[in-house]
Amino acid sequence: MARRPGTPSAAVAPPIRSHDEEEAREPDPAPVAAALLDAARTLSGALAALEFAPPVAHVYDPLRYAWASYEQYVSRYGATRKRVVLLGMNPGPFGMMQTGVPFGEVAAVRDWMGIRAPIVPPDRQHPKRPIEGFACPRSEVSGRRLWGWAAERFGTAEAFFAEWFVLNYCPLVFLEGSGRNLTPDRLPAAELKAVQEACDRHLAAALSALAPQWAIGVGGFAEKRLRAVLTAGQVARTVRVGQILHPSPASPAANRGWAEAVDTTLAALGVMAKP
Q1: Which tens digit of pLDDT belongs to each residue from 230-249?
Q2: Where are the domains of the chain?
Q3: pTM confidence score
Q4: Which CATH code fits 23-269?
Q5: Among 1, 6, 137, 244, which is most buried by a count of CB atoms within 10 Å?
Q6: Residue 6: is it exposed, middle or buried by C-beta count within 10 angstroms (0-12/13-18/19+)?
């Protein structure tokens, strides 16, 4: 059975910060950000109790070892209600797995968002997928495309996050023995059900705090989870749901002009005008 590296099998307390992490911590967040951070702590603790059978060999939780970075992201950019929330599936190996920020391509997080915080790697790591934090030399293609689109359309991070926010449905990274990433939708049914129960509660809490008009799934899996949570009545407000193409390079369609496809979809939904 694989558990999250460096944590006990039982549910755990909120992440313990080192002195350096305390120094990097943002000021006390506004109520919206505080609600998001509380929900993330609860989610991390709930997922810590779960076990995963092969082919999962390693489980990483950036909400623990990269908490200082995630806290900066939420405190700085998630302090107010939003018009649009984009929802991804789970971290990529060179994005959120390294930086703690959804779709967290290193250059975008460090240079565009202005976030840099200590990353304390877990004790047990896959030799082919080390946690290098902001020193990671590889670029996450999905994150580069998503945040590159945001920078091109909105200019500054402050302009984008004034009305938009980006979350991931599941914070865990599942790695097979070979080092290959295993997405949550490929987990066995019983394991997926347990993950979804915890992640659905977190998603409902996040949507309640952010109170968006639109919740857009980045890919089909994320859209399905949005609809499931909203259909179940876990969010006491009307939220319109849509889907945009996932920016993964594994998608041939994404490799044929992802940004233009997103512009077309968002314009058709009425979320924003096409440039």
Answers
A1: 999 989 889 999 999 999 99
A2: 23-269
A3: 0.89
A4: 3.40.470.10
A5: 244
A6: middle
